[in-house]
Amino acid sequence: MLRLILAAAALLLAAPPAPAQSPDCAAAQGCVTGLSAADVFAVAERFAAAREFEQAATLLTGLTRDPNPEYRAEARFRLAIIREAQGDRGAAIELLKALLDEKPNAPRPRLELARLLALEGDESAARRELRRAGATGLPEDVARIVDRFALALRSRRPIGGAVEIALAPDSNINRATSLQTVDTVVAPLLLSPDARAQSGLGISLSGQAFARVELSPKTLFLARLSSRADLYGKSRFNDVIVTAAAGPEFQLGGARLRPAAVASRRWFGGARFADSYGGSLNVLKPLDRTSQIEGELTILDSRFPGIPIQNGLLTDLNLLVDKAFSPRFSGRLGIRGTRQNAREAFLANRSLALDLLASRAFGKQLVFLQATATRLWGDGRDPLFGVTREDRRLDLTAGVILRRFTLRGLAPLVRVTRSESDSTVPIFDFRRTRVEFALSREF
Q1: Hey, what's the torsion of the CAs at 353, 287, 297, 274, to 10 degrees?
Q2: Does pTM top 0.85 for this prediction?
């Protein structure tokens, strides 16, 4: 159904064949001379109609290197159709991405890319391409078809996931103060080396995997597993977290709903630090042709084996609005509110965070900037420091995804993050700079 919807939109946007140009051809090579680009396209089309795909692909591949950008675009588009017919969606997707790197305002290839991404199970990327297509200004009849596609869009890929591995030099791996002594209600306290800022070179590993089963034409069952590990030569600072979630996924009034049961475990320094069990509800809904809103409510019962007085209920509400301002430029606004209860008031807190993200494509490279401001308020006075905890934290991140150098699906990523936290409780007062050289891949 999704394929038919976007195919109809693509037909409405279909353009005539590219104008003619005579490519060079040496007679000694035994090839035909005097053919225009239009002639080559016509021959390739006859090969494709006869299902002689490799012959058609050979002709079109030559035209993808033509100096005329119009011919390159047309050749890549037709070659993408052939690769899909051969069952190689990955190659078709890469061809369409290369086309759009040069011609970001081409709506038909972008809609084809959205369709292929949806068939591959990458729903979030398909929705992103639909928002970018909407930013180009679609004809009204095409826009109505795309709206139907957006409402019906849902991933049915049975399994998939993503991985990222990063080398991460870090000026403060334990997010600790640089002070050697701090004042307490009793006397100045000399901090141990492990309680002060420690620099180090780490490896960061993260991954997500999912599996889904169709329960009915309108309902799926989705299971997800995600993990992240920050590993250092100083293993006492290793931080590992694993989260599992499972539940149905269905559509309601144009919105996608995902209620799920959630379980999480975190280890710090090799020891079990926290266990959390509860549930979440994720709702995603397009607002218009260029934007969407996503909200998630999570409620977890958190248990800390080493600090039982910190046990309590965690409630988190996260809202995100994504918008494509143009095919190359997009942004996201997020707001998050969190409430952490605890047996002791000084360990309970509430926080509010505002997040801004902007990304801009420059050819095959994607540059992004992110700023997150967070305020935290404790419930009661800390008995050791004699004050109620209040934090002001700012995280600034800049990064670039180097798609030009992608190899076998691995995309290089460079990310730099600067964090500054000012707190009334000195052990939460820190500065941190982290650089990540990463490779990421979706599968």
Answers
A1: -60
A2: no
